[in-house]
Amino acid sequence: MTPLLEARRLVRAFGTRQAVNDVSFGIAAGEALALFGPNGAGKTTLLRLLAGLLKPNSGSAAIAGAALPAPHARARVGLISHRTMLYDTLTARENVRFAAQLHGVPDAESVTQHALEQLRVADRADVPVRALSRGLQQRVAIARAIVHGPDVLLADEPYTGLDEQGASALTGLLLERRSAGAALVVVTHALSEGLAVASHAAVMRAGSFVRHEPTQGLDVARYAAEYRELFA
Ligand SMILES: Nc1ncnc2c1ncn2[C@@H]1O[C@H](COP(=O)(O)OP(=O)(O)OP(=O)(O)O)[C@@H](O)[C@H]1O
Hints:
Layout: E1 5-14, E2 17-27, E3 32-36, H1 43-50, E4 58-63, E5 66-67, H2 71-74, E6 77-80, H3 92-102, H4 108-118, H5 134-146, E7 152-156, H6 164-179, E8 183-187, H7 191-197, E9 200-205, E10 208-214, H8 220-230
Parallel strand pairs: 3-8, 3-9, 6-7, 7-8
Antiparallel strand pairs: 1-2, 1-4, 4-5, 9-10
Helix pairs in contact: 3-4, 3-5, 4-5
The protein binds adenosine-5'-triphosphate (ATP).
């Protein structure tokens, strides 16, 4: 079976630095990969390659067999970044609706409302986002990233800045996207949060996967100890 999201021998360098070095994996519909690794390991660069925002030096990425960065493949991706990139003079609703309209979502108004409710930010939807706390802005950014119902969801430290309610809304959303048949990649420093939403886990070091396995049967405490040992 063709994986929904597939990376084949991806390589990306910046000057002489190999940010991503020969990474291959596949994620089937309904699966989620939690991706761990220290600063500079190449996680963000890998997500940008998978989102079609950056070109690899060699190798390729594909969504349901369609090679990135073809626009119809890119349109199937949602990217949650730790930088919110919202228009801060627009309201939360305007930011999310704008994204829905750009994606040509039918009935953008009600889909926007649903996304805002899912992130539990609907009651603050009509104030400019610059007046919202960092945590609420992050929730709006997540609502914007999922408003077009992407079947590939890439999340770069999505828990950063969220309070407990925001974090639990995000976990609910990630699990819901999985059961709806999406393929997810979640980059996080928090091992337990990542493992809780993932079917597979990988560790990146210096551009390459040094561990990659199903999460089923993994013991979080042992995984954390082994992770620390890898970087000791
Ligand atoms: N646009 C760029 N220009 C030059 N070097 C870059 C660029 N983007 C990333 N790098 C370098 O590539 C390497 C991997 O960076 P990347 O941001 O992908 O790592 P990361 O695992 O996401 O780290 P962090 O957790 O700090 O975000 C780093 O050495 C970084 O300095």
